[in-house]
Fold:
Amino acid sequence: MSSPTPHLTRDRTEQYLLGALPPEAEAELEAHTLTCEPCARLLQEEALLEEQLYEVAAATPRDAVVVRPARWHRPAAVAAALVAVAASVFLMLRPGGETASTPVTPVEAPVVAARDVEDAPRDIVVACPDLGTQEHCLKSASARGLLVYHPGGQGEVPRYDASSGLTQVALSSRPAAL
Amino acid sequence: MTTLQSRQDIDSAVRPAAPDEESLSRRALTGERAAWDALIARHQRRVVVSLLAKGLRVDRAQELAQETWARLIQQQQRGLLPELRLPALALAQAAFLASDDARRTRRESVDGTVEELPERHQPVDPAQSAEKRLLSEEQLTRARDALEQVSPGARNVFLLACDGQGLPHAEVASRVGLSVQRVRQILCEVRKKLRTALEEENHV
Ligand SMILES: [Zn+2]
Structure:
């Protein structure tokens, strides 16, 4: 306990709040705030911002959360899957449907044929990530004229590839037969 | 259910919440200690951070977080917990303890004695103790506008990580197909943007 511990930086505090620091560093940071008033305040302020971010997230419409199907089945498979009860709801844009980047439009991602991942995108699929928001998702979907269907367990994994960014292409789209 | 690529991916895609959160909660409600421990490990940080945000020192925040879990477990043992929605319930309990703490401190400083507060046995209803809003409408609007500006991928990560279910970063990472490190990087970037948006001066 002879050498004084360093003051907190904002970055380090963020790392702490994210749980990204190793335990010793975490303990050191905590201990420091007990003896250093300005750093204690910094930690509290950053924690408050963290809580505010949760509030922002809670106030953000869930249907903006989208996962990208890494792969998708061909129409037959899709149609077959319609009868299945879904755990998550997918919205499919109608052909010619709006794909522009209006703020409310959920993130769109190309759907790729099952056998050929590099295939040109065919459909625009957006997905609600969970059951909790399904109802809201369904409502806003119909409000926007989107087709909704339940892909059930069929599925290639909707996953969002954040690194590839968003392809805002107007895609030829198969309507899901409802 | 043909040509499934990967069981694990399917699970993360199809399951609504964190995969084992639900079963953990169920088991915790039967009093299984290991389930409680897992839930505590998962949500502890959020509870501590929420207490820090109320201006508590880190040591007190940790004490109250411990107390929070102790109370919840006690309520469960008394059959007072019909359901367990985390982290919301723990946050509500912690907020209650924090204001209790503040009241006690005030009283102590006023007359130098600590009056024993009636012990609450009732579980805290998170809906009822509706947390005070931390942000003004303008701030919220600015933050949402700022959120519109970040890449959809980053926004997705942010919303997954902060959706109030306490999804561990590792799980966010596996859902979006990125490394945990990258997820945290993204969260820091989004945080910076939102910080700026929230700190903007109010001008019309
Ligand atoms: Zn310091």
User: Anything to note?
Assistant: Chain B touches chain A through 61 residues (CB under 8 Å). The radius of gyration of chain B is 20 Å. Residues A 7-8, 32, 36, 38-39 surround zinc ion (CB under 6 Å). Residues 1-17, 114-123, 125-130 of chain B have pLDDT under 50 and may be disordered.
